Amino acid sequence: MEHLIIPKNYQSQLNLHDTQIAIKTVKDFFQNLLSLRLNLSRVSAPLFVDPDSGLNDNLNGVERPVTFTIKEQNERKAEVVHSLAKWKRYALKHYDFKEGEGLYTDMNAIRRDEIADNIHSIFVDQWDWEKVIAKKDRSMETLKDTVRTVYKCLRKTEKYMAIQYDYIEEILPHDIFFITTQELEDMFPENTPKEREYYITKAKGAVCILQIGDVLESGERHDGRAPDYDDWSLNADILVYYPVLDIALELSSMGIRVDKAALLSQLDKAGCPERAKLPFQKAIIDGKLPYTIGGGIGQSRICMFFLRKAHIGEVQSSLWPEDMCKAAADAGIQLL
């Protein structure tokens, strides 16, 4: 049970029935506020894509997608999405969204190689969102302004939930702290990337870590990023300190998307220049897709955080290792 944290004297403040009501309360309030503040329209999205389209998110490049064949289409192969990071940019073009307009959708995925623990599940549910921007707005200023907007939505959601439920206290700081991965390495050179995230997030309460994916001065990467959607110089993760588990909890990942120059450079750095020939990547190179900014926000993650739950399985249904289920039940953690 090395992957399970059991908080001392933990007890959920809501039973299973009331938890379901609270989950809807969190989701309804947050997504309505986010769509208003970022000017996003809700759209439908695919659960699976053609692997030859180049539309699936290959995450760190090692995770295996869930695949199946379609009998009626001569056993055509399909992949369950890992995320909609690339599909969203195509959709903005296909649905004729204009500059300053964006979309959001429920993204459900199966990540079969995920290691289950308090905050990770093989089932991923998030709001994927994407917005059209001008070329001149591919800047750090645009990224930071968007991060601040998303963070304000998180703070207002916490305030709203604290009004609805007496046991919830506001813990998010007024402002989010910005730091690059290189600055973080310089600050904690002897620590691992995850340790650095923990120390800075515990100290600041809410942190935006910038520029993830490229090699740092140490020769190591802070974390892996697919080379063909985020611009590694213009992306970010939002993390908050979560006292229930004493961890840094990532709630959102976002970034300004690659243009032609960034795409070709990052494909080369990642050792997969052949991906430039795939339809989605070729559309970027040929200038057929809009400039965009977008991201994903974990639905179960924010429900877990705002409801002060100890395990993500308290706010989503998934499959867990048997020993984890037993240990959770013995500790009074009710998995759905």
Q: What would you say this structure looks like, in words?
A:
This protein has 336 residues and is α+β, with helices and mostly antiparallel strands. It has helices spanning 16-38, 87-94, 140-164, 181-187, 193-204, 260-269, 279-285, 299-307, 322-330, and strands spanning 40-42, 48-49, 67-70, 76-80, 102-110, 123-132, 177-180, 206-210, 230-242, 247-257, 292-298.
Keywords:
11 strands; 336 residues; 3-stranded antiparallel sheet; 22% strand; 33% helix; alpha+beta; 9 helices; globular; 8-stranded mixed sheet
* Oligomeric state: single chain
Major sheet strand order: 1-5-6-11-10-9-8-7
Query: How is the biggest beta sheet arranged?
Result: 8 strands, mixed
Annotation field: number of helices: 9
- Strand elements, count: 11
Global Rg: 20 Å
Family: Belongs to the class-II aminoacyl-tRNA synthetase family. AsnA subfamily.
Protein name: Aspartate--ammonia ligase
Domain Aminoacyl-transfer RNA synthetases class-II family profile: 26-321
Pfam families: AsnA (PF03590)
In short:
By secondary structure, this protein is an alpha+beta fold.
Write the layout of secondary structure elements.
Layout: H1 16-38, E1 40-42, E2 48-49, E3 67-70, E4 76-80, H2 87-94, E5 102-110, E6 123-132, H3 140-164, E7 177-180, H4 181-187, H5 193-204, E8 206-210, E9 230-242, E10 247-257, H6 260-269, H7 279-285, E11 292-298, H8 299-307, H9 322-330
Parallel strand pairs: 1-5, 7-8
Antiparallel strand pairs: 2-4, 3-4, 5-6, 6-11, 8-9, 9-10, 10-11
Helix pairs in contact: 1-3, 1-8
GO molecular function: aspartate-ammonia ligase activity; ATP binding; catalytic activity, acting on a protein; transferase activity
Protein name: Aspartate--ammonia ligase
Subcellular location: Cytoplasm
